[in-house]
Amino acid sequence: MNEKNGTVEVDFTFPHSYEVQELQELPATGKLDVPLLYIPQPKTRSEHDGVWLKIRSSNGEPWVGVFAFGYSSPSAVSRVISTPDPEALCVVSRGAAYIVRPDEPNAWQQMRVLPIIDVRVLPEHQMLLLADYTKLIALGNGGVLWKSSGLCGDDLKILRITSKVVEGTGYDPASSGESRFSVDIKTGRSLRRPTSLEEE
């Protein structure tokens, strides 16, 4: 299922054991009847801006998470995505990616990739592929499968995904033009040095 749910795109292609609902506003009372968790917990104040989600875990215990925004650029995406692990949820909040277990809301992890500008769901590979401006990170049933090296200087774009490789382009500062990259989809290893498209 891939649909628009308020302001956040939702993709539940992978089977999952939880329910997620975006909260557009607080109840009229201004109070929630379920636990509220800020992810991450603010260090200098009591709250922060982010994507508000009401999450019901497989054991039926609901809670509300506020996932902090990561980046102000329009290219940074916000999405809610099921993962190859049916007990884990991926939340991308304006470029910041979080993996959380709905039945253990305090057991969350922030991906060290920022800002996320593209997300690809690859059920045939049992993989979730995240991209920032220069590199890729792949998530599987057990968590992070691999993280690529820097594939370009900026403006990474995924053009094609096959059974073996991820191919794309990006800005090459050495030539002030575009370069191409190819990455092994199983390992994240670069299969060729980025070269300027103008040289071909």
Q: What can you see in these coordinates?
A:
This protein has 200 residues and is an all-beta fold. Helices cover 0% and strands 49% of the residues. The protein has strands at 2-5, 8-11, 19-22, 36-39, 50-56, 62-68, 79-82, 89-93, 96-101, 104-110, 118-122, 127-131, 136-140, 143-147, 154-161, 165-172, 177-184, 195-196. The chain has a six-stranded mixed beta sheet with strand order 1-2-7-8-9-10, with no helix packed on it. A hairpin with a 3-residue loop joins strand 15 and strand 16 (165-172). It is globular. The relative contact order is 0.12. The model is unreliable at 1-5 and 194-200 (pLDDT under 50).
Strand-helix topology:
Elements: E1 2-5, E2 8-11, E3 19-22, E4 36-39, E5 50-56, E6 62-68, E7 79-82, E8 89-93, E9 96-101, E10 104-110, E11 118-122, E12 127-131, E13 136-140, E14 143-147, E15 154-161, E16 165-172, E17 177-184, E18 195-196
Parallel strand pairs: 2-7, 4-6
Antiparallel strand pairs: 1-2, 3-5, 5-6, 7-8, 8-9, 9-10, 11-12, 12-13, 13-14, 15-16, 16-17, 17-18
**Mean pLDDT, all residues:** 87
Q: Treating each run of at least 4 consecutive H or I residues as one helix, how many helices?
A: 0
Structural class estimated from helices and strands: mainly beta
Task: Tell me the fraction of residues in β-strands, as a range.
Answer: over 45%
Helix percent band: under 10%
Main beta sheet strand tally, sense and closure:
6 strands, mixed
Compute the gyration radius: what is it? 18 Å
Instruction: Point out poorly predicted stretches.
Output: 1-5, 194-200
Helix and strand pattern: EEEEEEEEEEEEEEEEEE
**Spatial sequence of strands, sheet with the most strands:** 1-2-7-8-9-10
Distance between the termini: 40 Å
Count of distinct strands: 18
Choose one word for the global shape.
globular
